[in-house]
Structures are given as structure tokens and as C-alpha cells.
Amino acid sequence: MAKEPTAKLWWVLGAVCVAVAAILPFVWLHTGADLKVYRLGGSALLDDPSTIYTARLVHISMPFTYPIFGALVMVPAALLPWPVSYGAAIALSLVALFVIWKLCIGRTHIALLTAVVAASMLLDPVRETISYGQINLILCAIVLYDVLRVGKSRRGILIGLAAGIKLTPLVFFGLLLVTRQWRALFNATAAFVATVAFGFLLAPRTALQYWTEILLDSGRIGALAYSGNQSWNGFLVRFTNNQDGGGPYWLILVALTVAAGLWACRLLWIRGEHLGAVAVCGLISLFCSPVSWSHHWVWIIPLGVALARQFQGRTMYAVAATWFALFALAPIWWPPRGGDQELQWSLLAHLAGDSYLWLSITAVATLLLTTRIPHHSREPVVLIPRS
Q1: Domain ranges in the chain?
Q2: Type and span of the H or E element at 17
């Protein structure tokens, strides 16, 4: 009798994998476009570091936009043949996805955990990340592991290294600051400074160009009005029909979001909701960046788990199912898009087309209202029953 539940769980896993395999080809669109740009950065670093930010691919207009340390990390991808490189990127993203869910939900039966990982490949940010060959899942896993699992003496180092690859993890320095994790903040700062110094040692002129010119050029990232840009800036561009950006309104929203977001992070951390605090901090970077593409929004996984765990029984499962179903259906792609059609959206179109912003604000507000009592001793999750 003891083996019967285990057999059923493996049947559940098999059914989920078959369903994902049937659906995923219809939403897998980008065939490693961003990984090709990463490889371009790695190749330029090997051939001529001065061309890292000027080199272009024949069929992809996007240039390499990460720091020089990020280009160094991409060197192995550049050296491998394309099929191997893309396959390795997918494999690493799937491992990172497994780590993210493991950190979020804790101990559970391996079959159910794997089923959840497989099903989450249908979430818009996840499938876009894997399809593009992006590194968002990897960076999310690194940050979560550093904050939630690494001991206090070494905490922060991985965050600093992640920020050296792509600058957005710098926002987690704010989390360490407001939660008064001084040793971790020092570690993160030292690790990040080391990555910057390495860039100057390797290619001083190119590094100077990056920090004084490239970093400030948001036009290198893509069209601000496109519906995939789920940030305050993207919303303002679409809502005000100003393609130059949100201007002073954006700066005001950024300042308010940083202040309110870090306050929420501290409050959640003090109340023992560490997973929610890290997820909210991740949202700050998404809201405040000039461009936050939909594939950057992998932080909806820890946010969704933190949200669902505030409830009990069937309500918890209903909240989790609703949250993740919305990000699988991805309403941001429903209104007309591309060719600046977003500038003509109606209010109803904005409700759907900017929905990642509205859903996240609602989730954070709910977290703040429901996490009233510290629960430091509570175990990570209970979204999936243990065997």
C-alpha cells in the first residue's frame, strides 16, 4: 500500500510532461535570439574587446548591453557550437527553474516537484526566457539561494557577482541595507566592485565607455512602447503617447516605488516572510527599469508562492492556481501590439496590456495586509503535499 501513492505521483508527472510537450511548441517563438547576442559579446571579448558594444549580428539588430564581466561569462557560450550552446542554455535554465521552486516550496515528493517545474515552463516569463536563451532564471536562482540559504558570513557574494553580469541584481543591495545585513552588504559590494575592476583591467577603454555612455543609452534595448515592456516607463510611454519615455512622471514613480518597495521589503522581512521580501525587491527592479521585458518577470514565481502561502486549505490552492494561470495566459499579449499600435490602446486594453504591473501591485498589497504575525519558525511551503 505504501507504494501506491508514489506510483500515482509519477503518473501525474507523466501527464503533466505530456501536456507541456504538446503545448510548448505553439508558444516557443524566439529560438535563442538573446543567446546569439550573448555569444556575440563573448566572441568580441576574445577577438577585440573594443568592439563589444559596436558589433552586430546580420539578422539581429540588438547589441550586447551587459558589463564586460558579463561578456566574460558568455565566452563559453561563444566557444561552443550553436546547437550545443543553445542546448546548454536551456539545460541551465531548467536546473535554475528547479532550484527556484525548491527554494520556494521546500521539501516535497520529487515527482510532484518535477511536475510543478515542468508545468511552470508554460508561464510567459519562463517560456520567453528559455526560448530567448536568456539568463533571468539563472540570476533569480542565484539571488534566492544567496539570500535564503547562504550563511551570514558568506551571504551577498553571489548577489554581487550576479550584478556584475547584469546590473539589475543591484536592487538587492537595497534589501540587504534595509534589513541591516551589514556583512552581506559588504560582501555584495566587494564582489561587484571586483567585477567592475576586472572589466577595467581587461579592457579599460571599453569599460569606461560602458559606464559613461552605453549604460545611459536605453535606446539600445528596444522599443519602449512595445507591450512586452512591463515597467512604469513602458506604461507611461503607451499611456501618454510619448515615445521618448516617461520623463519626470517616470522619475517620480521610480522614487515612490523604490521607497515604498524597500519599506515593504523590510516589513515583510521583519514579519518572517523572507521569500516575499526577496520577491518584492525583485519587483522594484522590474517596475523601475526603463525596459523590463516580459521574460524578466520570473520573479512572479516566488511572489506567487509567497502570496498563496498566506491562505489555508482550498483557498491557498485557488489563489496559486489563479495567479499562475494568469501568467500562463499572459494578458499583456492580448491587445494589438507591434508597430506602435500600443500607443492607440483603450483603457480596457491598458488593463490587460499592462496587467503584470497591476497584478503585482495587488499581490504586494495582499502580502502586506495578510502577513501580520511573525512566523520565523514556519517551514517554506505547503503548496504541494509531502509524501
Answers
A1: 21-370
A2: helix 3-23
